[in-house]
């Protein structure tokens, strides 16, 4: 029988009261319980939009798209219609999990060597980093296949918020200030986000009438307006000729996108990843996301070790990231079945000893023939840089449908370029590719290819019924954040609010494990004694989650403090 080691940090966990939320909260609350549907996002306006859709008879997918469109207004540095994302969706009527891949694609003119030799930061702030947007195609496919309302109707809350504005909080102000040096180098971006030459002050009202007009036109004309129409032409023109401020000394490279790339884009239905964990089924996003495979492999490894504690959590994550770098990308033959097999997990788990593995851990060999404890012989791939800013939301409705949805424009502020007159920032998603030279790397760029992602929207089922949904922003720390939430909930026995609030550490096959200060205060000494070394990361992730408590009751949970705290809401706090 496997022994579970419960960390002493449970005494330090920020306890969040699980009192029911008011029906119409005027400020964010991180935990809400009730009936008839629930939502958790990072933003109050987005959560209100989702709950309003649910109250008016819309389903979880309708609400998720409405909330995602609002986040494009209030969280424009993390999401928007010029970005992309992934959805994991449970259809209660069909009793089946579906996933939608709305990841951006590389233009057909991009090759494996396009990014070679370009400094990373220079690549980010350029037209070259902009991938073909997938968000609008994702929304369209999601609503047509699983929703009950039109895209035009789903966009109404976002149009309203963009028109009337929202109150600038400290997070929005700080993110604008952190981007000010590059925002000022583009005329359209400076005009929108640096009025009077400075970030909007905290407490002021920020309006985006250009984005409101863009959403209205999208509602009227439909997705083809982007994928081959006038909006697409304007995006291509911005990518190829960025509106650089006269006198700027920044080297802004033009991009490769053509209107034909937009016409060719498709959001895709994919089979989810699935692993069995502690008698439950865990579903995630398959490649080109590495979220489902890496979270799933790490869970399998933890099931295969004799003891499951923080040391084992870090080592399981280290091994899964080694395999992610070697085998996962938008390529024809990802060995997904073997990466998620029990045999491979046992072979990898035997590498975990009493002390931290030498850096870097080499990948295993998911060849289907597994020995008791072979010595890995491959070489590790370094963890590529990924932008930390994404956003995640979860929604459930009264019929039992559930959505976990990650959406992003990659770095905070994307590539820094607003499409003139449209109020929307372009993504820098193509910097998620490996820059090279890196022969054999599955994540090298290529024509039409989707860059590897770490987004990990996740659904957990017990005896065929959903029990938990979770996800987070954070670049490659998304994977470890979701993994740690599951470990906290199911290995260490925390309730869901505590599992989200608990201090975090992230090991991604790097020499040092990054950790929040509270984690270091409690665990550094014991883990350094096992050979781990640490570096401070002030804030890891900004998760949202739902747990289904039985008899129709749902608990929605968002971060209490990270990234300014999130917003959890339910349709009805009390059954009526």
Automatic annotation (TrEMBL):
Pfam families: G_glu_transpept. Residues 1-23 form the signal peptide. Cleaved by autocatalysis into a large and a small subunit. The active site is at 390 (nucleophile). GO terms for molecular function: glutathione hydrolase activity; leukotriene C4 gamma-glutamyl transferase activity. Residues 356-387 are annotated as: Disordered. It comes from the Bacteria. This is Glutathione hydrolase proenzyme. The lineage of its organism: Bacteria, Bacillati, Actinomycetota, Actinomycetes, Streptosporangiales. The gene is ggt.
């Amino acid at each position: 029988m496997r022994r579970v080691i419960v960390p002493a940090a449970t005494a330090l966990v920020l306890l969040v009261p699980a009192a029911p939320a008011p029906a119409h909260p005027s400020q964010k609350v991180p935990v809400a319980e009730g009936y008839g549907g629930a939502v958790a996002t990072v933003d109050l306006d987005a959560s209100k939009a989702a709950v309003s859709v649910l109250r008016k008879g819309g389903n979880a997918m309708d609400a998720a798209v409405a909330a995602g469109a609002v986040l494009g207004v209030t969280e424009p540095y993390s999401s928007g219609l010029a970005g992309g994302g992934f959805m994991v969706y449970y259809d209660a009527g069909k009793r089946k999990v579906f996933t939608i891949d709305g990841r951006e694609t590389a233009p057909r003119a991009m090759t494996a060597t396009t990014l070679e030799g370009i400094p990373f930061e220079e690549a980010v702030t350029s037209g070259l980093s902009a991938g073909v947007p997938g968000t609008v195609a994702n929304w369209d496919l999601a609503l047509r296949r699983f929703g009950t309302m039109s895209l035009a109707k789903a966009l109404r809350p976002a149009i309203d918020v963009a028109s009337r504005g929202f109150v600038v909080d400290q997070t929005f102000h700080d993110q604008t200030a952190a981007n000010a040096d590059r925002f000022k180098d583009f005329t359209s971006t400076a005009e929108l986000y640096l009025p009077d030459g400075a970030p909007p002050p905290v407490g002021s009202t920020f309006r985006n009438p250009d984005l409101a007009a863009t959403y209205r036109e999208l509602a009227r004309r439909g997705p083809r307006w982007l994928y081959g129409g006038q909006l697409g032409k304007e995006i291509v023109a911005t990518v190829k000729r960025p509106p650089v401020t006269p006198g700027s000394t920044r080297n802004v490279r033009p991009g490769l996108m053509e209107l034909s790339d937009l016409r060719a884009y498709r959001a895709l239905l994919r089979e989810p990843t699935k692993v069995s964990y502690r008698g439950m089924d865990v579903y995630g996003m398959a490649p080109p996301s590495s979220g489902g495979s890496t979270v799933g492999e790490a869970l399998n490894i933890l099931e295969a070790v004799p003891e499951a504690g923080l040391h084992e959590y870090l080592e399981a994550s280290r091994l899964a990231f080694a395999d992610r770098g070697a085998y996962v990308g938008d390529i024809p033959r990802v060995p997904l079945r073997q990466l998620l097999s029990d045999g491979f997990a046992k072979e990898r788990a035997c590498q975990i000893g009493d002390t931290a593995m030498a850096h870097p851990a080499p990948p295993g060999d998911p060849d289907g023939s597994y020995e008791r404890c072979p010595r890995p012989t491959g070489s590790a791939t370094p963890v590529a840089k990924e932008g930390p800013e994404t956003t995640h939301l979860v929604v459930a409705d009264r019929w039992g449908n559930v959505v976990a949805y990650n959406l992003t424009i990659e770095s905070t502020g994307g590539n820094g370029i607003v499409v003139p007159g449209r109020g929307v920032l372009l993504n820098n998603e193509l910097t998620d590719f490996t820059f090279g030279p890196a022969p054999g790397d599955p994540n090298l760029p290529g024509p039409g290819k989707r860059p590897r992602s770490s987004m990990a929207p996740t659904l957990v089922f017990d005896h065929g019924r959903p029990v938990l949904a979770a996800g987070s922003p954070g670049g490659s720390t998304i994977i470890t954040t979701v993994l740690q939430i599951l470990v906290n909930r199911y290995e260490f026995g925390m309730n869901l609010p505590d599992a989200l609030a608990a201090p975090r550490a992230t090991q991604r096959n790097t020499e040092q494990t990054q950790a929040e200060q509270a984690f270091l205060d409690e665990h550094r000494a014991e883990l350094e004694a096992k050979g781990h070394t640490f570096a401070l990361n002030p804030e890891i992730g900004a998760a949202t989650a739902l747990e289904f408590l039985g008899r129709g009751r749902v608990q929605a949970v968002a971060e209490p403090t990270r990234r300014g705290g999130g917003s959890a809401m339910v349709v009805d706090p009390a059954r009526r």
